[in-house]
Design goal:
Radius of gyration: 19 Å
Structural class: alpha/beta
Strand order of the largest sheet: 6-9-10-11-12
CATH class: Alpha Beta
Number of domains: 1
Largest sheet: 5 strands, parallel
């Protein structure tokens, strides 16, 4: 891994003097043989395009050969723990077995990451709710045998040449899954929203089903990944009404360098509507190396003209510390001050 990023920093309290709990770290298998035909390859290519066009200028852009491979647990661990200011991660699986042989980020490897780095990594389970009892049984296995701390879902499946969507407010498909999560002692559920990839129709990534999930399961905290882009305003109208809805800036924070004004508008709205307690950081490694986005975010300020014109709250150091890690610790039921102290903060 070091060879891919020769300029990467040595782990330590460097340019980001804050506790960092990265909520989105994938154990990707980008080997082209893993893709199930054209739809899977299209999904892969979209992620590589994100890597190329949203990486900070001057940073290392991986070649196709370097990117399209099966990333190992050790490579990802070195990237996030040794080459960045990241303290903890959530190893996030992807259940895209309709597009990839192993789902793209297999849950088994995520569990392996947490087992290998128990003080630095937790992992969330993931299943396909359309599989009914099979999904329920796999949830039980992931929690009781492997220690999953939450669940991550995708609303769009793709099979037999067409999309198979399901909604977070569906009482037949989604609600049994949420009920079973609660029986297993899990009250933290995230869902990919917006950011349509591959052949997924954009309409099936909309966020309009989140209020139904939040209203019917008030004891579950739901994380809307990617702040639902391009449905940001719709997402915010829901977050402000339901205390159990949260926004992850994964794959959003990476606008910060190439499109700083765009990112400023997104963050300004999030701060005004959602507030600093309901925003979570996500680095999306290894699509991007996490360090440059951490550095950019720690040094980022909303432009004064936007603050003055729109009345947005400024990104204070207190807000950044919450977003970078403290909020996610709290959602996992972890003692914020004790955990930070353990890591030297």
């Amino acid at each position: 891994m070091t060879a891919l990023f020769p300029g990467a920093k040595t782990r330590g309290k460097g340019s980001v003097p804050a506790f960092v709990f990265d909520g989105v770290c994938h154990l990707f298998n980008f080997d082209k043989k893993n893709a199930l035909g054209g739809p899977g390859e299209m999904f892969d290519e979209h992620l590589y395009a994100f890597h190329m066009f949203m990486t900070r200028e001057g940073e290392r852009i991986l070649s196709r050969e370097e990117f399209f491979k099966e990333w190992s647990v050790d490579e990802i661990a070195e990237m996030v723990f040794e080459q960045s200011d990241t303290d903890m991660i959530v190893a996030q699986p992807l259940p895209l077995t309709d597009l990839f042989h192993d789902g793209l980020s297999p849950w088994e490897k995520c569990a392996q990451m947490a087992a290998k780095h128990p003080d630095k990594a937790v992992w969330w389970g993931s299943v396909n709710p359309l599989e009914g009892k099979k999904a329920i049984d796999l949830m039980t296995k992931q929690v009781e045998e492997y220690g999953a701390k939450g669940f991550k879902f995708y609303n769009v499946r793709y099979d037999y040449g067409q999309p198979f969507p399901w909604r977070m407010d569906d009482p037949r498909v989604a609600f049994p899954i949420f009920e079973h999560a609660q029986k297993l002692g899990i009250n933290l559920i995230g869902v990919h929203k917006g950011v349509p990839l591959g052949p997924q129709p954009i309409e099936h990534t909309r966020t309009f089903d989140m209020d139904g999930a939040a209203a019917n399961f008030p004891d579950i905290n739901f994380v809307i990944f990617h702040v639902g882009l391009p449905w940001l305003d719709e997402t915010l109208w829901q977050i402000i009404r339901f205390p159990n809805l949260y926004a992850s800036i994964a794959a959003t924070v990476n606008f910060i360098s190439r499109q700083p004004r765009v990112f400023a508008e997104i963050m300004g709205k999030l701060m005004w509507w959602a507030g600093e307690d309901k925003i979570l950081f996500g680095g999306e490694s290894p699509i991007w190396h996490p360090q440059w986005a951490l550095e950019e975010f720690w040094n980022f300020q909303l432009p004064e003209d936007i603050v003055a014109e729109r009345g947005y709250p400024q990104l204070t150091e207190q807000a950044k510390r919450k977003i970078l890690g403290e909020n996610l610790l709290r959602l996992h039921g972890m003692d914020v001050e004790k955990t930070k102290k353990k890591f030297g903060y």
